[in-house]
Amino acid sequence: MPVSASSSTLPQILLLPDGGPQSHAEPWLARWQGLHGAVLLEQHDWQRPLRGDWSARLQETLVDAPAPVVLVASGLGCVLAAWWAAHSPAAAKVRAALLVGPVDVEQPALREQLPGWSPIALQRLPFPCILVGQANPAACSLERAQALAQAWGATYVAPDETAHDPTRDDWATGRTLLQTLLKDDKPW
């Protein structure tokens, strides 16, 4: 699905959901899609995510994007964004990224469940980003999330600072963080 925008200068919000065996319902992503016009990046296989296939799908979408894009990634989507940005010249089309609860695919248990997703790309991302940690050490410890934020050049936000309750609303604090990244663009 191509990314579109009503104006060539306004960025399109592209959602990169978690997926994979550790995934969980992310109501805030669905609400952002439904209420705020964000576009969900559809993958061909959510049950057996392959990094190469997911990267190719992201690449196709960004190459076809008529406007700048802001990535909003959750879980495995964070790892995808970092890997793709480290390997694609189309990363120049990304204005910023909000990375929420990255998954540490280098943990032994997750490495078995998600073969081919490690190592995690640790290059500085070529666009501004904010990384929100999560209070789920089985997916990624806070220390590891902080280390990823540092490697990617992201501003780190601890999960308790975000009032993140995605099951009850559309995560207004997340939208505020996203607006911080958008700066001069219209309120989102």
Placed side by side, the strands forming the largest sheet appear as 2-1-3-4-5-6
CATH topology: Rossmann fold
Indicate the percent of residues in helices: 25-40%
The radius of gyration computed from the alpha-carbon positions, rounded to a whole number of angstroms, is: 15 Å
> Distance N terminus to C terminus?
22 Å
Keyword list:
six-stranded parallel β-sheet, Rossmann fold, 14% strand, alpha/beta, 6 helices, 188 residues, globular
Structural description of this entry:
- This protein is α/β, with parallel strands linked by helices.
- It has a single domain (12-182), classed as Alpha/Beta hydrolase fold, catalytic domain (Rossmann fold, 3-Layer(aba) Sandwich), CATH 3.40.50.1820.
- The chain contains six helices and six strands.
- The chain has helices spanning 27-36, 51-64, 76-87, 108-113, 142-152, 172-182, and strands at 12-16, 39-40, 69-74, 94-100, 129-132, 155-157.
- It has a six-stranded parallel beta sheet with strand order 2-1-3-4-5-6, with helices on both faces.
- Helix 2 (51-64) packs across helix 3.
- The longest helix is centred in the N-terminal third of the chain and has 14 residues, at 51-64.
- The model is unreliable at 4-8 (pLDDT under 50).
Question: Topology, please?
Answer:
Blueprint: E1 12-16, H1 27-36, E2 39-40, H2 51-64, E3 69-74, H3 76-87, E4 94-100, H4 108-113, E5 129-132, H5 142-152, E6 155-157, H6 172-182
Parallel strand pairs: 1-2, 1-3, 3-4, 4-5, 5-6
Helix pairs in contact: 2-3
